[in-house]
Design goal:
By secondary structure, this protein is mainly alpha-helical. It has two domains: 21-206, Cytochrome Bc1 Complex, Chain D, domain 2 (Orthogonal Bundle), CATH 1.10.760; 207-242. It contains ten helices and six strands; from the N terminus they run H-H-E-H-H-E-H-H-H-E-E-H-E-E-H-H. The strands form three sheets. The protein has a two-stranded antiparallel ribbon. A hairpin with a 7-residue loop joins strand 3 (136-138) and strand 4 (146-148).
């Protein structure tokens, strides 16, 4: 009986601990489409140019983008790879998508080591990630000048402010915001870009899903044809049985 009570305690308290850092605001839904190659390409561009400097993708290799994103080798080498190895030689296309950030320096600057984001879309979910990236606002009380309505007091600057612009809350509930400076994109354009970024991170979290979609179609087709043949065979075997 005591073991059962302990089990119930952990069952109902662990989810609260796991997501305790997030606020209770409603998540915004995002349309994830892994078949949209153009969206995945745009998302990869945004990530490499704005996120990879701090957040690695240590379980993803550049070369996978050739097969899954429809990019050729030269395009990846010229536009997505900007790092070198310890000998100063350009990172190979078969390498993992990591950066050259000094861990101790990064922790000193942000107070915590920026996490690897390879599995972020699986652990948090695309909707959470989409809402998080749209929830930054100006907050002078924070060391980096920005806060997040979904993840209060997160130690992360609003890296994409130049695209979105800068906004500040108009109420204490953080439900409405007004823009105090504009970015390079309109609100709709920025939300579309964030959707592309989330789409890319969703792909990165499980690249095999694209292959499963392709294989799954043929498996289902085979089962349908096999069921039809099996039915005809059953009819043939049992036609003389009365």
């Amino acid at each position: 009986m005591n073991k059962f009570i302990i089990f119930l305690f952990f069952l109902f308290t662990f989810p609260q601990f796991s997501f305790g850092a997030s606020s209770s605001i409603d998540l915004r839904q995002v349309q994830v489409d892994l078949s949209n190659t153009s969206s995945l390409q745009r998302g990869a561009k945004i990530y490499v140019n704005n996120c990879l400097g701090c957040h690695t993708l240590k379980y993803q290799r550049y070369v996978k983008l050739v097969d899954h994103l429809g990019l050729d080798k030269s395009t990846i080498e010229q536009n997505l790879i900007f790092t070198t190895d310890q000998n100063g030689e350009r990172t190979k296309i078969g390498s993992l998508m990591i950066n050259a950030v000094n861990k101790s320096h990064s922790k000193e600057a942000f107070g915590v080591m920026p996490p690897d984001l390879t599995l972020i879309a699986r652990s948090r979910g695309p909707d959470w990630l989409y809402t998080f990236l749209l929830s930054f606002y100006k907050d002078e009380s924070r060391p980096l000048g920005a806060n997040n309505a979904l993840y209060p007091n997160v130690n992360m600057p609003h890296v994409l402010w130049w695209m979105e612009g800068v906004k500040e809350p108009v109420d204490s509930e953080l439900s409405n915001f007004k823009y105090i400076s504009s970015g390079s994109m309109s609100v709709n354009e920025y939300e579309k870009s964030i959707q592309d970024l989330v789409n890319f991170l969703t792909y990165v979290s499980e690249p095999a899903k694209l292959e499963r979609y392709t294989i799954g179609f043929w498996v289902v087709l085979f089962l349908v044809l096999f069921s039809f043949v099996a039915y005809l065979l059953k009819v043939e075997y049992w036609k003389d049985v009365k």
